[in-house]
Amino acid sequence: MPLVKWALVLNVIWKIEGDVNIQSIIQVMIVVILGTSIAYLIYIASLNYISSSLAGILTAFEPVLAAILSVAIFGLKFSFIELIGFLLVFVSIFVLEKRL
Asked: Which of its termini does the chain have fewer beta carbons within 10 Å around, N or C?
């Protein structure tokens, strides 16, 4: 088992393993365009309507919403570690809110 952990650390990221075809390239482009670029532009546009501190607090809800949707849509189950992470995100949001 320890050998597997070191293999993950020592694996070179520029060595592509797996099947690279036009479908996988299109899927990566969809994630880049929709999941990153458009989401970032919407976030920047929202700063015209809300304060930057509120926008920062709302971005802290992003992993919470992703976890809830992964359970609702894909039927994933929370493990104990994920539940602790979920609670830590909520604690950090409350700490950020107290500072405002």
From this structure: N
